[in-house]
Amino acid sequence: MPSRAMAALLPLLPALLLLLPSTPEATSSAMLGISYGRVGNNLPPATSVPRIVASLGVGRVRLYDADPATIRAFANTGVELAVGVPDECLAAGSTPTGAASWVRSNIAPALPATKIAFLTVGNEVLTGANSSSLSRYLLPAMQCLHDALAQAGLDKQIAVTTAHNLGVLATSYPPSSAYFRKDLLPVLCPILDFHARAGSPFLVNAYPYFAYAEEPTGVELEYALLEPGHAGVADPGSGLHYTNMLAAQVDAVYHAIGAANSAAARAVEVRVSETGWPSAGDANETGATPQNAARYNGNVMRLVAQGKGTPLRPSVPLRVYMFALFNENMKPGPTSERNYGLFKPDGTPAYELSYRLPQDNNTSSGGGGVIAGGGVYNGHGYGSDNGGYYSISAAGRVTMGWWRWTKAAAAACVAVLAMQLWL
User: 116: which residues sit within 8 A by CB, 6+ positions away?
Assistant: First the structure.
């Protein structure tokens, strides 16, 4: 029986329980991630990255390969990884034996210390330079890797997907009129069936920058930069109103999925696997400036942290991987390709961002921060084969906020009460 003192505290128990976090806690970390890669000869060691990720308040990281040292660096950090299966592994991974060997060699040794949530099979395979030779391997590799995970008892923990660019769309404006390229439907429709069965998301690399750079007189800069004060654009087909281009691009993919596979459209979620804005470019790369990059990436963070969906899917929070955190000096292509990073390799900001991520914006215990601001070569952009991998540099520590401290204290009080009640 509890003592009189403890009995007097019993009425407080419901109030204390209300202070406890739900499991899992609903935070913007469920939506915001960071791309991390190594196409540079001056990047910091992988061992320095997890601490920096935690200090930024970001709990999800996208890798573009399965480098053992990089994966091992995230062990026991709580950071959730999306691990890339490089294009050159697709052929071998498209067989049951090859897929099982890949999982056994690259994924199994990292578990359970490293938290791996996704395998992204290739990157922009259907629109890349090697699409003619690789496309036939994409779905078989996804299926075989999923089966290999299932055989290892990991399919509930690790989902299998692939990332596309907007080049898979025949048209994207207005969003309600979007549909996939007809030549890609024989591949995309079965991939959508796979996503629906496996419960994995459809990933898209979405860049308003490319739309603006290709037609600066026809696309308003503020709309492409996701500026919150922009009046927006109406979709005459759906009647929906779009205040920023990123949401319009995501909904265009949703509409294309619906046009191609109505059954899958009810089950498949679209997530943004890359988005960003370059801080420098060649003379003909319109809009590639530090000011525009700062505005765009700050607005992406703000938009994702709000936890809202798109006009077409308002109840599905927008999930995004930022592209990216380091400028990578060995990436080929135009100047912009080497200037998507929030940070320079030496850890100094490429430009300043004043947006502060929420303190609980991660899946580990690290706080938020103020951003001031070797894998293979993969693509982003409309049908291009250029892409990237980025790393992260220093950011300040943020102390535990009052609300988080209160919840921790409440948890301790509830634990003490629970023990005392049965003494």
Answer: 71, 80, 81, 83, 107, 110, 157, 158
